[in-house]
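Entry for the shared binder. Reason: the reviewer on the internal report wants the predicted structure included alongside the sequence.
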Amino acid sequence: MQKKIPQRQCMGCRERMAKKELIRVVRGTDGTVNLDFSGKQNGRGAYICPKMECLIRARKSNALARSLETEIPPEVYDRLEKEMEAADNG
């Protein structure tokens, strides 16, 4: 029997994908917003595809902020952009 693969929805394109394929943005218990590459940090999480068009769409619709119920600092969006560019180039 195959092991069940956890699925999450991208906040940009709204597609369901395997959790490991997505980038997790987490609002920690202290209220700070960070990227969580381990997928294990405590707090409320939202997921986004590692594609620039999904980030643009999620930022435009304010989907991450609504999902995490807090304002997303510009540094988080900048770091997401850098991670996506590195993934494209790498």
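Summary line for the report: The radius of gyration is 13 Å.
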